[in-house]
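Hello,

Our lab assistant flagged a job as stuck in the queue for most of the afternoon. It eventually completed. Since we weren't sure the result was trustworthy after the delay, we are filing this so someone can double-check. Below is the sequence as submitted and the structure that was eventually returned. Let us know if re-running is recommended.
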Amino acid sequence: MTLVQIAALVGVTLFGLLAIFQVALLLGAPFGEYAWGGQQKTLDPNRRVGSGLNIVLYGVFSLLMLARAGFIYSAALEPILPFALWMMVAFASVGIFLNAITRSRKERAVMLPTAIVLFVCQLIVAIG
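-- returned structure --
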């Protein structure tokens, strides 16, 4: 197994775990201190919509990583894959910044390391 494949699998696994977390938030679980700035224990409707959008993004990012690592093939993705991968890396870098500046200690303690690992995985996949 190559480094790109390992990074893709680690990234997809983290995205899966984050998706489960976002589903819990969407359904009203009291984990809001770990997301969206940590200001609400249970998310308001707007932030729940954001959690739903994150779930979709995690799925798209996982698809891109799996395609680049050679686990899946899609002729439709081929022409846009390099650009899409670098947009994903840019999005990940924003995630690091936002998790670093959050006022929520709980969010910073859990999500910042997660965001850093995801960034590294995405960068390896994009370069690879």
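-- support follow-up --
The delay was a queue issue, not a problem with the job. The result is valid. Helices lie at 3-26, 45-68, 81-101, 105-127. The chain has a mean pLDDT of 96.
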